[in-house]
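Hello again,

I reread your note about wanting to compare the complex against the isolated chains. To keep things tidy I'm splitting this into two emails, and this first one only covers the full assembly. Below are the input lines as submitted, including protein chains and any nucleic acid or small-molecule components. They are followed by the predicted structure of everything together. The single-chain runs will come separately.
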Amino acid sequence: MSDKRIPVSKSDTLMNDEMLSSLRPPGLAWYALIAFLGAVVAWGLFAFGYQITRGMYVTGLDRPVMWGLYIVNFVFWVGLSHSGTMVSAILRLSQANWRRPILRAAEAMTVFSISVAGLFPLIHLGRNWVFFYLIPYPNQRGLWPNFRSPLLWDAMAITTYIIGSVLFLYLGMLPDLAVVRDRSSGWRHALFRLLALGWRGTAHEWTVYHKASTLMAALIIPVAVSVHSIVAWDFAVTVVPGWHSTIFPPYFVIGAILSGVAAVITLMIIIRRAFHLEEYLTPLHFDNMGKLLLVISLLWSYAYFVEVQTTWYAHEPIEWEVFSFMSGRYTVPLLVMLLGNSLLPITALCFKRVRRSIGAMLVITLLVNVGMLIERFLIIVPSLSHKNMPFVWGSYRPSWVELSITAAAFAGFALLYAFFVKLFPMVALSDVRELEARSVSVPLGRAELPSIAGKE
Amino acid sequence: MEKLTSPYKWGMVIDLDRCTGCGACVVACQAENNVAICDKKEIAEGRNMHWLRIERFWVGEYPDVRVRFLPVMCQHCHDAPCEPVCPVYASYHNPDGLNGQVYNRCVGTRYCGNNCPYAVRVFNFYQHEWPKPLENQLSPDITVRPRGVMEKCSFCIQRIRRVKETAKGEGRLIRDGEVQPACAQTCPAEALTFGNMADPESRAARLARSPRGFQLLEQLGTHPSVIYLKGGGREHVG
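Full-complex prediction:
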């Protein structure tokens, strides 16, 4: 590849400075952003408090649509969380070097989006205050949760994924934390000294670190795949027409990766702009991510086609009723979804010029995620609206409480991210520099030999 | 541990030829089971709490229009879709073949409500009040359900319990017809017959063997305890 992946000509200190630029003292804009996001989150908390004190009637839920926007959000945020594992772990194992500057952003996104996702099933409960009934804790009455229930599998999978992704993020950050430790003072120094676990950068430490991170990358991928399969089982194992479909687990995993990769690209664009990292996040990165998005969009389209085509061919009356109702009542969202997830990415991302255009990529990736949010809604709500008994068919319209909490989820995610960016190294410094070290030639006597570390 | 077996398998037969759609069963159920009294707003939103509903269908073209009624309560499936999905065992199967619901255990995931193909589960969206003097009719045998909890028809399990205890005291089994839920007791047309399906001589079991018998959504394999007897006469003959 002709593009340079890193500006090698710069001095070490300057590069470190630039890559850690997000850690500089925050400006007025950052405080304004925090205030705004904080206000939205506070409003969401008020809405949640209102729901707790009044009752579930403040939502738009009703018989037969017992699950609505909260579960849509849950599935959507779990989907977003697949970005980090996809971009980081898979690209790490496949030794794609261009991943290096973006992997931190992606891994952090996994942690925050899975945390937001984990809140929604709790918000959704009719009696939130007894949520601990779902936890298998020893008690005198011998009561135990029901391990046959997909909701229990969900709880297990999500807890595992939160722990796994936090470890993955932390492990990857360890050498960077040491760099920041050495450059900081005051309370930050104390914090990073604690977090860096006494990292000194010896050869032995690096060997162990490489082994551990490769192992972690290999371990986190099956976890990620299982998490979204289990989320899909929430629907696939039921007898609800439109949900009871064997394609759901792979289809959900593909959808999750689609929205995750799109969100990583969106975040890359924002971070690149906000912290002036144009030299580190080059059009090459967008080009490669664009190709990845194209492939996954093709896969998603295939899975969607299979799902609709088999239903159409079988023409089971109630299943077909659900599809007819969905396409009739939600025609515009359906078309937006097909455009955003399928038609637009597949056609546009075939062109190198589009993949390398930051503006075009921003539009495409945002539309992909709008499409994915709609997709989750169209999976969950129409199936429940038209179940087997025509006498109790209904519909669903989210209330202001549900919309407020959804807005607060987006704001809360952004808020966590804004704090993370100011506190922790946003670009995977040591990963980028490692590549540099590998490509640099080693002086040996008078001769210059290429470094053997370059052979990965 | 004692094996949970039972000489009873409760079931109901609903003769659609006899049902007049009068709605007495709905009222009886409400009075018996502390079913909440909903105001106009709740009913307009479709959040009424009836455990038993009468579905009404129009059959035929004007002027030969007929109305058909289908009373639908919890079908007490033997392979109930609501049971495995509950994460806290609030929805469980009892040895008599009934789908129990433990109100105090329910956390309100509403998963059972989604997975019930008959849509007979009702959720307490509101905190319900019984305006004076209606609170005097509350039955002490049954929990008053708070908001955020799922509830549904129990085949008047409190009545079954009471009769079981009487029978146990007298050292015998429950006799046919000794217990019936409020809906069956009230039905003026005797369209609803309740009984022990494990006893082939019980009235309900004998009626269930009728060639007119069918079950709701039989193809789903839920094996309901409620057997319907096909009604309709003319429009089915024609």
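For quick reference: The first helix of chain B runs from residue 24 to 32.

B.
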